[in-house]
Amino acid sequence: MAKETVFAKIVSGEIPVQILAETERLIAFPDMSPQAPVHILVIPKSTAYENVTELAAAEPETLAEMIQVAQQLADEHAGGEYRLIFNTGAGVGQTVFHVHAHVLAGNLEESSLI
Ligand code: 5GP
């Protein structure tokens, strides 16, 4: 079970962000510290899941929708090609324990997420 995180405050509107996509189950917004020309986060509105493994087990349809939205965002912002990253665990760089997909596109040479 995820604890209260900064992303819960984004979902609730307590922390304002530029919403790039929204459905009943998820939202997408720009990463505040972009590691690529296009760097968008896609997150479920549910605060119940710390990582993609938990989400896949409990709500596979939400995970599928996150991937569909990632493609739509890449189509809109980056000509359709993108990289999707789910950091899972502090040891590999996960800092926010509310599952999120990093959608990266453009020139990724300088990205610290690779
Ligand atoms: P992680 O390292 O957990 O995979 O990625 C967390 C990401 O969330 C980081 O890339 C970080 O820049 C982003 N982030 C953290 N807090 C905020 C915030 O308040 N607003 C936005 N837009 N991004 C955030």
From TrEMBL:
One of its GO terms (molecular function) is catalytic activity. Residues 6-113 form the HIT domain. InterPro entries: Histidine_triad_HIT (IPR001310), HIT-like (IPR011146), HIT-like_sf (IPR036265). SUPFAM superfamilies: HIT-like (SSF54197). Pfam families: DcpS_C (PF11969). A motif (Histidine triad motif) lies at residues 98-102. PANTHER family: HISTIDINE TRIAD HIT PROTEIN. This is Histidine triad (HIT) family protein.
